[in-house]
Amino acid sequence: MFERFLHRPALAIVISLLILFMGGLAINVLPISQFPSVAPPSVRVSVSYPGASAKILIDSTMVILEQAINGVPNMRYMMGDATSAGEGTIQIVFEPGTDPNVAVMNVNNRVQMVKNNLPPIVEREGIIVMQNMTSMLMYVNVFSKDPNVDQNYLYNYATVNILNEIKRIPGVGRATILGNRSYAMRVELDLDRMRAYKVDAEDVMKALDTQSMIGSPGRLGQATGTTSQTLEYVLTWVGRYKTPEEYKKIILRATPEGEILRLGDVANVSLGSSFYDLYSDIDGLPAAAIVLKQTPGSNAAEVIEKVKEKVEEIKQKSFPPGMDYAVTYDVSNFLDASIEKVLHTLFEAFILVSLVVYLFLGDFRSTLIPTLAVPVSLIGTFFFMLMFGMSINLITLFALVLAIGVVVDDAIVVVEAVHEKMHAKHLGPYQATQEVVREISGAIIAITLVMTAVFVPVTFMTGPVGVFYRQFALTMAMSIVISGVVALSLTPVLCAMILKPLDDKGQRGIVGAINRGMSKIAGQYDFVLRGLLCLILGCAVGVAVYSLLHIEIVHEVISEQVELSDMRIYVIAGIAAVLAVFSFRSTFSGFNGSPKRRSPIGVFLHVFDRGVEMVTGGYAAVLRRIITRRVMTVVVIGLFGYGIMVVNKVLPTGFIPLEDQGMIYGIVQTPPGSTLEYTNAKCHELQAICEKMDEITSVSSIAGYEVLTEGRGSNAGTCIINLKPWADRELTSKQIIEELEKRGTDIANVKLEFFEPPAVPGFGAAGGFSVNLLDKTNSGDYTALGEETDKFMEALGKRKELKGLFTFFAANYPQYEIIIDNDVAMQKGVSIRDAMDNLSIVIGSTWEQGFVRFGQFYKVYVQAAPEFRRYPEDLDNMFVKNEAGEMVPYSAFMRIEKKQGLNEISRYNLYPTAPIQGAPAAGYSSGEAIAAIKEVAAETLPNGFDIDWRGLAYDEAKAGNTAVYIFLIVVIFVYMVLVGQYESFIIPLAVLTSLPVGIFGSFAFLKAMGLANDVYCQIGLVMLVGLLGKNAILIIEFAVQRRQEGLSIMDAGVEGGKLRFRPILMTSFAFIAGLIPLVRATGPGAIGNRTIGTTAVGGMLLGTLIGVLVIPGLYYLFAKFADGRTLIRDEHDEPLSEIFER
């Protein structure tokens, strides 16, 4: 079937060109992101209750909403958070794959069911139900060097001129400015004057409501159908006031005698800010901090670029003098650096693979054929990525790097087989290719099917990890399928066209003409061709030397003798490249067919070829001595299986490693009750420490906001610490954190913790783990929860696997409880409702009506002036109007008691909880950290208390043995494919039982390199099953063929091993060479690179070196057992299972 391509070479070439063309088009439209979209969808419900404490907000609003929302379809878990700033949020996290729009609709329906049960003020403030955008995109700080510009101006300028523009950019899911510094009309009441004039807060609110209002007088002269007139008049009215002067003129009381009491007589009115609950600055300058989050599925790099272009455009057109902006965090920095690193790795891997192939084949023409298969397979894969709705991300790029060593295999097998035929039977390229296509097409199909079959079961995995597996698996599978197509279409045609016959005489037809034409062209342009080839290969040698000197172990060993600076490495690599150019010049002096002069490279290739032949002969001799020793074969496999269990017990486990992303969060926690100004001062102290470190470029601080839960509080602060590019600093982010922790001890009376951004965007705000301590006693005793939290944190702090333990749960926040004597209040004619409403306005602040200015809607806030609400004693000087219109002091019927309580209350699945954040200690994985927390919880928590997880830790803790099950499914799937290929249930066992050797190699190398068994490792193991299975198939396929030709089982096994020894070494070492850049990776994405590279290199190296000795023995073992067994003897015999048939 595939021989037809030899008769239609143009068709074979066009097929490959079409694959390249479609892949090239797909590259331009594929979205680019750091990882696939794996974060589960979530919905956010936000409420506001001005003046309410966290406890009041929980009891009056949050509990009602949570009970209604609980159990919404596909809900994973629900988290609630209420603060004493009167703000509450409920985040509902859904199972991956849930339609976020449907989730929002379902949650909103349940909210509407209980809306009428909520306090009227909560309804008036608004209940916001929206999709929760969890993927951080960037922070933009707008600042000014003009000392006259304050934070209020910056906030409102950014709101009016920048924020609205950014929100319209496709891909921006959420854009907000931290804090609420929007303009507001501040009505600050003078309580002394109000008491003198016998006016209370309610009188002020009524006056605002009745005088600053919207009116709609209508039109004069409207048509009535019976009369007509020439003109129609629209009646207008100024309506709501817009300036402080207008509000000051509002009348509170008027008498017939002409006495008028105006708002300006009892209050100071000014255009201020809605709240003063947050300070933001960058490098000591006030700033408006804009937070942007990404819409799921959008192209992060493209969105960020559009945002930067838009802000730069606004800056050029409208920024006032002195104003500027700075991007303090940008996910594209890490994304671009990581992708650039992987692309460099891709190029290096391609060069190294080509060099290994050239080393084994010793012929440029033969090397050219398999290297042409690589770009076709890789670029063509992008088309299928587009068809399956995937993106260009680190996982798919990892797959392509690994695929380089895989996709070249099929072409190598074909080329090597053609060489073998040409030398063994003295055939021309065309005739040799014909025979090879007939013989080897089955093996190519089997290899392609097995390699693809390895990844098919993985695509059915669910959850976030399933998305990683699926994108990796589909990328690998598609590239392998394309490489199979190329190996059976383009590669044979290229072999017939490009390879030089041993004797050119007698070669006829189009192939002969092409060969003769190539030789003629080579003769005419011999000098140019040799020059280009020498230059390319010389550069490749220089790159290889440069890469070798950057391998950590090599670098350290050489540096002990000679200092290796970057400049010296460049010089050494350059000298190696120049020497290689002159050596290759001699090697390729006979490219046009003339006799070659032996050069050092030529001598080396000749010696290497002779060495491989000697090793092959020795290998065959060893095989003849050990192949029949079945007990030894079983013992060896058993030992490697036992070794896997031993190493696996001591190998750290993990989920997704935390990478150096070039940014660190500094979390500042001052003592409970600290003022915002005090917390801001501590943030500035941390800023000063950071600015003294060379590795840090800028620091922006936000007092009153903590990034972990996106909550607000006067004793919380966050510093965003930006690091220099990876190439410009020697310390990693973890080392910088350790240094900051040491220097941070100089800051008194504050708790500091440092976290990196999350490993996967969308899973929380920071890296590490997130665990909740739950109080399931339903006692409502937060003091007990606080005591258990302290004990639990103390026990966790003793575990060496954990560090950075942190919680904002504190039951010792200073509070005063108001106690009202109802009897006395009623005797004095005071309504309890009126008394509390008055306090809510005077102390808590409330807004009434609003106004439009600068094209924006702003609120009018009424509150006592600051000097009347500073201390608890100020309550004694506050009055409320009774039924008789008299001013009654609160001290007459009310007292306060000092106590401690919660400033912020968190809930998890309806239970009170203490959220805890932390990270694995140096040298420990996230899996070990989670295991340690589970152990501590089991040992220390009493009945009624439990833990649960959120964010990425939720999936890791719930994952269990999913990877083991997937691995078993992969093995079973491969087994079934091989059964169909060999028409035997026994022979495929020889392939599967050879796998423990390579798996042990992977685990052993991971342990030696100090890496963890995480998602990258598991992906590498799945791929390893296919690669090691491919090597076994190459040997067993030819052994089966030789057995069918009449050889004994032993001779067939030896012959299969001997014939496939060279191509197995070539393909395996080509694959390993392609992974060297991953193993030695540094900088962005280094941990993932090293993990997947080490897994594959360790498994492939040991699986190849030991496997070539074990696989023939396994074939002999199972072939002996299967010999003479068949499912159906012949048409007259009764069909029997091969287990019982002899």
UniProtKB/TrEMBL annotation:
Coiled coil: none annotated. Its main location: membrane. The chain crosses the membrane at residues 342-361, 368-388, 394-419, 440-460, 472-499, 527-549, 569-588, 631-651, 962-978, 985-1006, 1018-1040, 1061-1079, 1099-1119. It is a multi-pass membrane protein. Gene3D superfamilies: Multidrug efflux transporter AcrB pore domain, Multidrug efflux transporter AcrB pore domain like, Multidrug efflux transporter AcrB TolC docking domain, DN and DC subdomains, Multidrug efflux transporter AcrB transmembrane domain. It is found in: Cell inner membrane. PANTHER family: PTHR32063, SIMILAR TO MULTIDRUG RESISTANCE PROTEIN MEXB. This is Efflux pump membrane transporter BepE. InterPro entries: AcrB_DN_DC_subdom, Acrflvin-R. GO terms for molecular function: xenobiotic transmembrane transporter activity. Pfam families: ACR_tran. The gene is bepE_4. Keywords: Cell inner membrane, Cell membrane, Membrane, Transmembrane, Transmembrane helix, Transport. One of its GO terms (cellular component) is plasma membrane.
